[in-house]
Design brief:
Blueprint (H helix, E strand, L loop, with lengths): L2 E6 L5 E6 L4 H54 L1 E11 L6 E11 L7 E9 L2 E5 L3 E6 L1 E8 L3 E10 L2 E10 L3
Antiparallel strand pairs: 1-2, 3-4, 4-5, 4-8, 5-6, 6-7, 8-9, 9-10
């Protein structure tokens, strides 16, 4: 950028002087504008990554909750009934915080033989145990059960990082 300034010399005549240099103030203004733009882009990029991760975590927890609910419904639907529950009461509510459920179901090979099966939570994973143990879900924080007269209410808590999701469902008891 060429700067032109008019200088008045001692004789009172105007003379034009050209300069091929930048003024320090202009450089500082440009640098300030550029840094504001770059910081804004960085903040937008960082927040969009955070929002994306949050959405992915929520979707994963909802999918996992659906899979775990379906598997618990299947296992309890094929069972004769729950025989024992390991856990403790969870505060003022009628729910019981459960770590393990024992239930009886007919064997797949011998239909007249009852065998014990378990649904258990170990760490952040939930398993079904029957002649071995297989995982039906992960990211589970806890499972609460409320045993009513005709039905059981289940409440599953899932957690990924700091995001949480709660899944509630009801299973009718067999008569």
């Amino acid at each position: 950028m060429n700067l032109e300034s008019r200088l008045i010399n001692i004789n009172g005549k105007n003379s034009i002087r050209k300069s091929d240099a930048y003024i320090m103030v202009e450089v500082l203004v440009y640098l300030m504008i550029a840094s504001i733009i770059l910081v804004s882009i960085g903040i937008i990029f960082r927040s969009s990554i955070s929002i994306k991760n949050s959405i992915i975590s929520k979707i994963e927890m909802r999918q996992m909750a659906s899979v775990v609910e379906d598997r618990i419904r299947y296992e309890m639907g094929n069972s004769v009934g729950i025989t024992r529950v390991w856990g403790k009461n969870s505060g003022d509510t009628s729910y019981k915080n459960v770590r393990k459920i024992e239930y009886r179901a007919y064997s797949k090979l011998q239909k007249e033989v009852l065998e014990s099966k378990y649904i258990s939570i170990e760490g952040d994973r939930i398993y079904v145990e029957n002649q071995g143990k297989y995982q039906i879900g992960r990211h589970i924080e806890s499972m609460d059960i409320d045993d009513e007269k005709d039905y059981m209410k289940y409440r599953l808590y899932f957690k990924i990082a700091r995001k949480t999701y709660t899944k509630e469902f009801i299973l009718l008891k067999k008569i």
